Amino acid sequence: MKAPVNPPLSKERMVAVSAQWRRFVAGMPVDEAIMRPVILQSWQRCRQAGFRADTLALCPIDAAGLARSIAENQELVDTAKQVMDRLAHSIHLSSSVVTLVDVSGLVLHVSATREDLENVPYGAPGRRCDETTLGTNGMGVCLVERRPVHVIASEHYSASLHYLSCSAAPVHDSAGRFLGAINLAISTENFHQHTLGLVEAAAHAIEEHLRLRSLARTQRIILELLDDGVIVLAGDGTITSINRQACAMLGLSADATGKNIRTFIRASDVFKSILADGKTFHDREVIFGLRHGERSCALSCAPFADGGVILTLRETRRMRKYAARVAGAKAVYTFDNIVGESKALREAIRLARVASQGEATTLLLGESGTGKELFAQAIHNAGNRSKGPFVVVNCGALPRNLVQSELFGYVAGAFSGALKEGSPGKFELADGGTIFLDEIGEMPLEAQVSLLRLLQESEVTRLGGQEAKRINVRIIAATNKDLPTAVRNNAFRGDLYYRLNVLSIQIPPLRHREDDVLLLTRVFMDKFKRSLCKPELEVTREAMAALAAHHWPGNVRELENCIERLVNVACDGRIDIADLPQDVMADMVRGRQPLPGEAAMSLKRIQKALILETLRETGGNFRRTSTLLNISRTTLYAKLKQYGITADSFRAS
């Protein structure tokens, strides 16, 4: 018959165990029905280690080891102290000592009176209480078994400890990692069967505190990682928790916790109403009066049970930046994406680079399809606002009755159908970045008045509102209209035109960039071959020449659409002159009506384009060029002189 795990404590049992201890140290067999296996196994380990049962030599205090272990287990020590002190206080009349040890058995902390500690000398911080140092004892056995255990009187292996009884329980962290043990040593006459339960409860309390500390630490880390400011307020406005982002937004120091929020914010009626109402709301725009100015932010509130609230603060400018991104307002093109070598285009790029290094309002002039938005994005990305929003407004596409609200926003209830919380306009969304006003010539006169005021004051007032908001926006406008003529016809405000026309850039049409047509054609061919998975595709010289000779009224946009169509319909890996669109073919066959200031398309123009393309193909080799064109070299020289073509440039490339 095996001994029960927790046998009842009685005088008879204590006498029986004492007798078995004497038999064991004398080398005689013991009655396993009396001895608990956990104690007998510990005795056997002590005997194998050569531990003496008649004397007990205390190890010296390891001050250096104690300092290292406390540093490694600081959170455990800080947490266990409170629980241990309460446990020792609750049984202070019982000559008890509560001890905390690490996994090696080193005593980290003791809760006891000086008199009680003298009764248990091995419990001083810095001493070791493992099984190899003290023999069978509560802490030593617990460290081996890693489960709750008590050692009563003569169950101790050393006779010097038979006057004590110990109860020990292991302590784990929130991840289940074994940290050490807590032990209660008490005079045997004061020991009670339920003492182990008290120690287990204390160990559980320590573990729970450690779990809560870990949870609080994790929550704190999460709060600090948030891009939003978070403030937790008690019912009276006291700050119980605040993260670093909220401190930065409100200009508070890290020691703001424990102070009332009203001491930092002027005219804090907003907090008074928030705490009084206790209602949930989201992203309400609020302007806080701080000690060093004002701060506009979007405020959200979530009350909790004891009358306090959790506040979330988001920077208005950052929210608008995100809103602009969600709306697709992002500049992706740079000057590297502008393809062309013509003199007129190079001059436009030079001026655009100059514009990108300043803040001057820029006006882009050019026909539809010349790439005005491409230039606007390149200017934005090359400047110091590249990390800010890039908002595009097509003034010609806005409904006339919604222009004001779209550009400048509106307040709650400004008009029928308005959102109840109001809405920011495009200029507010572009705050800190660039707004591109495309087709500015189509803007209604009433909206031009508001735009002029914004340019002069750098302020925007929402439709239906009274409060002007400061904004910092760089304006790039574009038009394909003749604005000076529109000013003379009273279709565009002259004062606004002069404000916009600080730096104007003329983007040339494609018909004035004759040599760039072939370069752009190759770029678009490569682009669409990749996207349509057509790696092998040849364009004949005649087709290239016809593309170069076409006048392209839709400019680069038309050319790109044409190449996409050709790549889609191409058969047998070849694009010939017969595959070209009808309008390009018509130019070749019958010529066309000239545009203002432009001569009609002629066979000479087609001939020049064909010679240029052949020279590119042959790398400037006259013999091969004349052979492919089926003309003599003398005729080729004459044509080169006639058209002002230099073959050396093709050889160099």
UniProtKB/TrEMBL annotation:
A Pfam family per the record: HTH_8
Annotated Gene3D superfamilies: 1.10.8.60, 3.30.450.40, Homeodomain-like (1.10.10.60), P-loop containing nucleotide triphosphate hydrolases (3.40.50.300), PAS domain (3.30.450.20)
Domain (Sigma-54 factor interaction) ranges: 338-568
Family matches, as InterPro entries: AAA+_ATPase (IPR003593), AAA_lid_NorR (IPR058031), GAF (IPR003018), GAF-like_dom_sf (IPR029016), Homeodomain-like_sf (IPR009057), HTH_Fis (IPR002197), P-loop_NTPase (IPR027417), PAS (IPR000014)
Keyword Nucleotide-binding included in the entry's annotation: yes
SMART domains: AAA (SM00382), PAS (SM00091)
Alphabetical keyword list: ATP-binding, DNA-binding, Nucleotide-binding, Transcription, Transcription regulation
Keyword Transcription listed: yes
GO molecular function terms listed in the Swiss-Prot or TrEMBL record: ATP binding; sequence-specific DNA binding
GO biological process, one term: regulation of DNA-templated transcription
Regions crossing the membrane: none
PROSITE patterns registered for this protein in UniProt: SIGMA54_INTERACT_2, SIGMA54_INTERACT_3, SIGMA54_INTERACT_4
Name of protein: Transcriptional regulator (PAS, AAA-type ATPase, and DNA-binding domain containing protein)
